[in-house]
Design goal:
Blueprint: H1 12-18, H2 20-42, H3 45-48, E1 51-57, E2 60-65, H4 68-85, E3 92-97, H5 119-130, H6 135-149
Parallel strand pairs: 2-3
Antiparallel strand pairs: 1-2
């Protein structure tokens, strides 16, 4: 049996606090989390859960959303959001899309796998590839169709 050294294991927070760069990054992240909470509190309820993160650089507030649909809604509401935040530091809002495992709404069933093309769509791509004069484009269509055929379950009506 291996004996553990007598030295005290440092907590991650202790390690982060010892280095100026890490301290700065941790403080910045805390400010971003506070900003995200403040922004979410001012968003309409259906939009809140789709706002994943926020950052402020100079006078631009960047909101990270889980889909283009929600980013579009934020763009339409941008002036109202800026006004509701009532902060002289924020003059404009931009949006970014951040798609990932955590951003798929519960219950959709496709969070653990990539959905493939239907077999009809894959056949259509293969057929289209046969009629292309550009060999590079033809091969790209062919590879895309064949790659998705293995993920295809059944055709949808």
């Amino acid at each position: 049996m291996m004996k553990m050294p007598a030295t005290r294991l440092a907590h991650v927070q202790d390690l982060l606090n010892k280095h100026a760069t890490f301290r700065t990054l941790v403080a910045q992240r805390r400010r971003e989390i506070e900003l995200l909470e403040e922004v979410r509190a001012r968003l309409p309820p259906p939009l809140r859960e789709h706002c994943l993160d926020a950052s402020l650089v100079e006078d631009c507030l960047t909101l990270f959303l889980d889909s283009a649909v929600w980013a579009t809604r934020v763009r339409f509401l941008a002036a109202d959001i800026v006004e509701s935040l009532n902060s002289p530091r924020i003059a404009r809002i931009r949006t970014r899309i951040r798609v990932g495992r955590g951003s798929t709404p519960e219950g959709r069933g496709d969070s653990d796998r990539t959905r493939g093309l239907t077999s009809g769509a894959a056949r259509h791509l293969l057929e289209a590839a046969e009629h292309m004069s550009d060999p590079s484009l033809r091969e790209t269509f062919r590879r895309f169709a064949l790659r998705h055929v293995e993920h295809t379950a059944t055709d949808e009506v």
